[in-house]
Amino acid sequence: MSDTVIMIASGDLRLSANQKCWPAQARAEEAVSSAIRGEGREVRRGHHCQAEKGHGFIDSQKYGMQVFRQIPPEAPLVVVEAVWQYSHHLLAGLYTHQGPILTVANWSGEWPGLVGLLNLNASLTKAGVAYSSLWSVDFTDEFFLGGLRRWLAGETVAHDLSHVHPLEEFPLPAIAEQMGTRLASELRRDKAILGIFDEGCMGMYNAIIPDELLHPTGVFKERLSQSALYAEMQQVPDQEARAVRDWLRHRGVRFATGPNPETDLTDAQILDQCRMYIAALRIADDFGCDAIGIQYQQGLKDLAPASDLAEGLLNNVDRPPVKARNNGRVLYEGKALPHFNEVDECAGLDALATNRVWTALGYDPETTLHDVRYGEAYRVNGHEEFVWVLEISGAAPAAHFVGGYAGAVSERQPPMYFRLGGGGLKGISKPGEIVWSRIFVAAGALRADLGRGRAIALPREETERRWRITTPQWPIMHAVLEGVTRDQLMARHKSNHIQVAYAPDAPAAGLALAAKAAMFRAMGIDVSICGTGHGL
Which domain holds residue 102? Predict the structure, then answer.
């Protein structure tokens, strides 16, 4: 390996985010550089800090291509991420780079780098690009330094994946096998539609399922435009929008409003979000969608408040009623319309299957994706467990919260990401048994990881601390993933997102996991069971 390591960093497309997050990125880069120099190697940055922009990120695909033209194709390359980043900024260059690639993130919930890392790694996996990956709190621990030494010595950094087991190792209950097979057969026979409001959100190449992989499952895409959603919003009368807000207020949702639209959640923003909720249901009904995903980012962000309130409502069975245009038919009455945040199609396919399995079992079918945002060890019931912080800006349903709607508050989204404001549904996920999963693309095939876990209650002061070091405006789940360590999840998980749904109790969770795994397998998906520790 060359004595000089090239360091690069992908960032956001939004200038405000890049400027605000740059100090954390600079600190992470300096720490990684110090560790590399400590191993006797030199470090050279592959692109300059841009004084006129106030940051040093690769902030577009175009710029990323320019940067890679100046990088020797066989140079050892380290991608350092302390922020959420757009993977497509780098993907073109990484496709053809011939030297060893190491992706690195700081273990911090602040912006956060580990979420950006998981997305980049998943995108590289889908693209078939070889890479190694490491993460660290301060880049001085032996886990990081040992891995770095191996990589600098020319090795691929391997991690412990002993928690991953092919589904074939587990005998499934007959009722689960029969149910999963039947539901998959019905899906292929009757077909289903994912409504895609502008594909390819925030550079998430990993979140796009190629049509030729999706169609054999019986699911097809209806590619919709966010401009149509915005136009439909303009047709919603004030009276209908106010009715949605009044319904939420009567259910106990608190709206944390203020007078300044630049920094506060305002009444006008809330009513526009209610219009979006109504418009989304009407368009979904027009096209016969079984689930929908709204991109929002880089499209509606310059036209409308955040889509997050609408997303959370759509994922709840009990939600404000919306009627079809010009008649009294209630749309999707008594049902959730699964919404997959940021048009993550892998999460959309997962949500669709989850909804059908949980409904067939008679369980509450509300499901959502979350960011794998952060995590720390915490003493639970007398012993230490690793408790993940799962958060998402939107899509979390009130049925997941302690107190339901009455336990929810809507706060203004961070201005650096959401210029025109709007709120989400913020709450604390209730304690209970969960099933988690992720569909992803690797080696040209659809694959899925599934496991069990528990959402747990933490003291309020600990919840508030975790909110402060992540994003306090977003809903939070404190999750323990059974039989999976921090580093095992980071090494294996091929997404920044994780899908979760509740089960009534532990035996029910085992049955739900088995039925969902059976359905995935019958859909032609290669299924692995992760962790659990006690079979299914």
Answer: 4-152
Looking at the structure, tell me whether residues 81 and 225 fall in a common domain: no
Answer yes or no: are the C-beta atoms of 204 and 342 closer than 8 Å: yes
With H, G, I as helix, E, B as strand and everything else as coil, classify residue 161.
coil
Question: Are 177 and 120 within one domain?
Answer: no
| 320 and 432 inside one domain | yes
Tell me the pLDDT tens digit for each residue of 36-76.
999 999 999 999 999 999 999 999 999 999 999 999 999 99
Q: Are both 91 and 217 inside the same structural domain?
A: no
Give the β-pairing of 445-455 and 526-530. parallel
Burial 10-35 (b: 16+ CB within 10 A, else e): bbbbbeebbbbbbebbeebbebbbeb
Name the band, by pLDDT with cuts 50, 70 and 90, for residue 326. Answer: confident
Helix (H, G, I), strand (E, B) or coil at 3: coil
**Within-domain flag for 160:** no
Q: Residue 32 corresponds to which tokens in the numbers above? A: 């990684």
Identify whether residues 184 and 307 lie together within a single domain.
yes
CATH number at residue 62: 3.40.50.1070
If asked whether residues 337 and 468 sit together in one domain, one would say yes
Question: Tens of pLDDT along 290-317?
Answer: 999 999 988 899 999 999 999 999 999 9
Two tokens, residue 180: 């999963």
Strand order in the sheet with 77-81: 42-45, 4-8, 77-81, 101-106, 132-136
pLDDT in tens, 253-288: 999 999 999 999 999 999 999 999 999 999 999 999
Q: Which residues have CB under 8 Å from 177's CB, separation 6+? A: 514, 518
| Residues 398-438: tens digit of each pLDDT | 999 999 999 999 999 999 899 999 999 999 999 999 999 99
Q: 400: domain CATH number?
A: 3.20.14.10
**Residue entry with tokens 């959730």:** 336
In a domain, 163, yes or no: no
Evaluate whether 167 touches 511 at the Cβ level (below 8 Å): no
Residue type, 224: L
